[in-house]
Amino acid sequence: MNKVVKFGGSSLSCAEQFEKVGHIIGLDKDRRYVVPSAPGKRDSKDRKVTDLLYETYELAVNKEDFSGVFAEIESRYNDIIKGLKLGVSLKDEFATIRKNLKNGIGSDYVASRGEYLNGILLADYLGYAFVDAAEVIFFDKDGNFDSEKTYKVMREKLEGIERAVIPGFYGSMPDGTIKTFSRGGSDITGSIVARSVKADVYENWTDVSGFFVADPRIITDPENIEMITYSELRELSYMGASVLHEDAIFPVRREGIPINIRNTNKPEDNGSWIVQSTGQKSRFVITGIAGKKGFCSVNIEKDKMNSEVGFGRKVLQAFEDNNISFEHMPSGIDTMTIIVHQDEFIEKEQRVVSEINRLTHPDNIDIESDLALIAVVGRGMRSSKGTSGRIFSALAHANVNVKMIDQGSSELNIIIGVKNEDFENAIRAIYNIFVVAQL
Ligand code: ASP
Q1: Residue 270, in any domain of the structure
Q2: What is the CATH number of the domain that holds 433?
Q3: What is the pLDDT of residue 410?
Q4: Which of 36, 105, 323, 408 is the most buried (most CB within 10 A)?
Q5: Domain identity same for 190 and 292
Q6: Is position 267 within any domain?
Q7: Within this chain, do residues 201 and 292 fall inside the same structural domain, yes or no?
């Protein structure tokens, strides 16, 4: 067996957390490749090292004094070295970073040093080899992840190394400069490493015991999701459920490597399993509920729209020309609605409207803002009748007006549009009918 284990920032925020990580790794000799984040918050008032690094960069580009913030970063690492009584010193590394900052190095390099330095410490603590991600993760000249080169180089490199620490979050460009993934990107690194070494499992250790059926900020003490498929997770994380970076499933998905989300502070919990497909029924008809506020709907009406060939294409053309992606497109015989992100759309709205007018000559265009979308996701919906009926009667009982409904042909999810102010109520109503009523 061969496991890739990724530890998030809160799992490696201080010496005590490092000890928990060391203990977890020691429990299973198959945990051979380890991907760390930068030190995260030690308590709710603390700051993440990555945020401190971005601040340092801002001060440096504006030619302001960054020594105070930089000293804070140094002390975060030095405290870990002291707490664990490590033999390693980061003095030279700090000097190099300071020099590079003064010479105007890019923000990605600066941000990536959080993982880089933490990787050096973790490798030393575990007695594992340190492999700099810049040598094994690559981007092409346009800044896109270069999967072909990465998998080949990383596989060859790690084949010869029994146990290694590979820092998360970054890789290198063809000219050797450092580039990071988007925030939270160490999850992607873990997935890339798992794919490269064809791991049996990708364990992602964080500070919660996996996914919840609904957001704990809305539902007190929600139930856990024991098993979820990649596709279900994709729907949920796209709609705001954030435990794992939404791009982290792509590398492992192709190889069918399962991801196990675990809690560093409660290693005895089984966490959540993310798998390609499963015959195992989920505990409830639905697997999860997630959602986001801040959408707009653009409703277009025109008599006999249905018989006008090319109408839909022309409407979408107006959005494409203004570089706006659309989320959903429910339609009727003589109406068509385009749902877009409000913040992307609002400043271009009049341009889009006039282009739709010019291209399609509609009878009416009506824009409604402050909408929320809720995704009710579950592989169990395919085999159970009346799911949408139950959702809508629950919403009616909760006095929530449904503005839009969209059910994908996969029967994996139902998307419901409501007013922003009804968002929390709607989620509670759906959770109650499918989860609370069934416990
Ligand atoms: N340290 C980076 C961040 O804070 C990446 C990560 O933790 O995954 O976004």
Answers
A1: no
A2: 3.30.2130.10
A3: 75
A4: 36
A5: no
A6: no
A7: no
What distance in Å separates the CA atoms of residue 342 and residue 14, rounded to the nearest whole number? 40
The answer to whether residues 196 and 52 belong to one domain is yes
Half-sphere exposure of 335 (CA within 13 A, CB side): 11
Q: 169 C-alpha vs ligand 1 centroid, how far in Å?
A: 6
Q: What is the DSSP string of 77-92?
A: HHHHHHHHT-S---HH
Counting ligand 1 atoms within 8 A of each CB, the residue from 169, 178, 204 with the most, and so the one to mutate, is: 169
Q: Kindly give the distance from the C-alpha atom of residue 181 to the centroid of ligand 1, in angstroms, as a whole number.
A: 9
Nearest ligand 1 atom to the CA of 187 is 8
Domain boundary residue, one of 182, 207, 232: 207
Residues with CB under 6 A from ligand 1: 9, 37-38, 48, 50, 114, 168-169, 183-187
Residue 349: give the domain boundaries. Answer: 288-438
How do residues 66-96 score in pLDDT, each as one tens digit?
Answer: 999 999 999 999 999 999 999 999 999 999 9
Distance 50 CA to ligand 1 centre (A): 7
Out of 122, 182, 186, give the residue to mutate to test ligand 1, the one with the largest number of ligand atoms within 8 Å of its CB: 186
**Residue with CA at minimum distance from ligand 1 atom 2:** 184
Residue 244, in any domain of the structure: no
Structurally, how many domains does the chain consist of? Answer: 2
Q: What are 248-253's contacts with CB under 8 Å, separation 24+?
A: 248/187, 248/188, 248/190, 248/191, 248/204, 249/191, 249/274, 250/191, 251/147, 251/188, 251/191, 251/192, 251/194, 251/195, 252/191, 252/194, 252/195, 252/202
Same domain for 203 and 64: yes
Question: How far apart, in Å, are the Cα atoms of 171 and each of 150, 151, 182, 233, 381?
Answer: 9, 13, 12, 26, 40
- Provide mean pLDDT across the span 339-358: 96
CA 33–ligand 1 middle distance (angstroms): 18
User: What does the alpha-carbon distance between residue 126 and residue 114 come to, in Å, rounded to a whole number?
Assistant: 18
> Which of 207, 227, 248 is the last residue before a domain boundary?
207
Q: State the pLDDT confidence band at 7, using cuts at 50, 70 and 90.
A: very high
Report the nearest atom of ligand 1 relative to the CA of 51.
Answer: 4
What is the whole-number distance in angstroms between the Cα of residue 39 and the centre of ligand 1?
9
Give yes or no: residues 81 and 202 share one domain. Answer: yes
Rounded average pLDDT over 360-374: 96
388 closest CA partner among 285, 235, 280? 285
